[in-house]
Sequence to fold (122 residues):
Amino acid sequence: MAIVRKSLNEARFEARVDLDRLQNTTKADIRRQMIEDGENPDDVSARFEPSIKSLRMMLGIEQESFSRLIQVPLATLAEWEEGRAEIDPATRLLIKLIAKDPSAIVRMLIELAIADPMIVSN
Fold:
């Protein structure tokens, strides 16, 4: 395979990004595009998605305990934390809920596990 050498100007010329359009995009343009995509531009919480690892560490919970708490295999949690696998939508929502109100959601998850010991039998 041949190595192709290009100057910075040659590389910029071939770029597929319309830099003028990008630089001239206003907040109003972004807002309009979000609305067209079905998003609520005023909902800041929808754009915040905590890292599953940072959330677990903030709670001070070991990987094994956290995997039981959210009912996923330890190996799956490790893959999510290392970025090797995509978090499924249901767990992504659970993570957002935990981040929004950690004490209430974790307490509810623990109560569910106590009420039904089969939940944590993985």
